[in-house]
């Protein structure tokens, strides 16, 4: 099992060339590792341990038979249908295995043998957006930016910078679809995270949407466990009931009730609590990222400041600051995105040199000033630029 977790850790290995952002990597790297780890834990418990142990009041049924039957079919719990509380007349009665009656609503639990499979499918779903982006990216960035560029000697480094600048200059205006595909993959990652919350809620019989919140409320209010059902136990009961139909010597059916211990739910309670918080966290940060992307797409000056954060401080304070700002703001979204990916794979001082040389070689279109800054003329001094 340790070797399996070691293999999973390779998903989080340091990549020499980055082709995406940190939030996107949370989806296909960290989330996939988390889900596959939980899948291994759950499946090992089912294969190597005893996920369910049942007993009956009669000793006529073999323990293996009743265990196998209740595991393959399902178990159920009994809670009060009106006030969701257990019987106050018998405080020792376990809250999930109350007596059957007309006013008691049984809750079936058919999910536990499928948890590992669902976790595996979810990990695949979280990897799909990255796989699609890798197919669309086609190693463009790795061929453009060498992983050891930062360790070249000065001559080789200057030659490589010149090649990058030449490519960015000659391919200007041809990368819009490239950027759109990436933003679409990020949107797909957000959509997938939302779908996984909905899927988990459906998988757990519409009781998962507020699972984490209910547990926090229960812990905060310190509800009496003898009266109010624990949200963990309501969703993932440790004790449950199972009904087995046997046939006697006369051929008539006999109903045999068994009490089952679902030890596997000790893991499931914590696994799905963590997944609940993690999925909502992913949705929140990815939604904020989408807002950030929208601002970048609609405001060229923000795109400049995004790249400026990746430059060395000496490059920011240089005499070419105005021209760099003009050049970056005049770039189309696709060209800016390629430049942004280059910034992720180079040192700030090298990236500053790339932007500086690019601003010297790329002509600024006449419509730039009136479009973005409402200033007449294209020949601005550094002093005039500092007033923007």
Automatic annotation (TrEMBL):
Q: Does the keyword Glycosyltransferase apply?
A: no
Location(s) in or outside the cell? Cell junction, Gap junction; Cell membrane
| This protein's GO CC annotations | gap junction; plasma membrane
Mind listing the UniProt keywords for this protein, alphabetically? Cell junction, Cell membrane, Gap junction, Ion channel, Ion transport, Membrane, Transmembrane, Transmembrane helix, Transport
Name the Gene Ontology molecular function terms of this record.
gap junction channel activity
- Tell me what topology the record assigns in the membrane: Multi-pass membrane protein
Q: What is its main location?
A: other
Q: Which residues cross the membrane?
A: 21-43, 111-133, 179-199, 271-296
**GO terms of biological process kind:** monoatomic ion transmembrane transport
Instruction: Tell me which family the UniProt entry assigns to this protein.
Output: Belongs to the pannexin family.
Describe the task this protein carries out.
Structural component of the gap junctions.
Stated name of the protein: Innexin
